[in-house]
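User: Predict ADP,ATP carrier protein's structure from this.
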Amino acid sequence: GENMTVPIRLLAGALSGMTAATITHPIDLVRIRLQTQKELKGVVDTLRSVYAENGLRTFYKGYVPAMLSLSPFIAINFATMDTLKTWYFGEEKNLSKKELKKRNPAAILGLGAVSGIFAQTCCYPLDTVRRRMQLKGKTYSGTTNAFATILKDEGIAGFYKGMTANALKVVPNNAIRFAVFDMLKVFMVTESKEYKEVKRQATAWRTRHPSRPESKLTA
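Assistant:
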């Protein structure tokens, strides 16, 4: 198949990010409340506490910035990684298993780390707003108000608080994810019919001429 263009990669990543944000946001909100509000005694207690605030709507506090941060993060991350791999390894169209095996895992780790750093730097302000709204939902009237309040009280630096610590988790995770994915492709990629036919012909030729040196197969 043809290589995807950067806009298509970005769109695919954004759509997957939107889906992930919609499904996982309530779980993420409960996790953050449990980690930061020591008075809560467990998952059930947290669920009751969140629901008591404003019903089911409370579970989606910070959903807009979450969607606006996760979707671009996934889109930028995957598009950047694909672009870096094309730059480093060359075009990826119809790679065989043998060609995939030749790739250096350390190079994939490095490229994954770079793409993770770049995507996080671009999207971290939105992630900051998401976390603040999940933790202090009553403090802000909405996403726009949260942005304005943080900017007014803390300046631009307020949007990047904790980014270094977060990078210590995100960057290695991103690098390992791409490296493992690349290794799994070796087992998952199926060889094309043309490649299988060439292998079949080569095996048949060696069977018929066991004592003769191999020569190039011609169509």
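Residues 12 and 62 are 23 Å apart (CA to CA).
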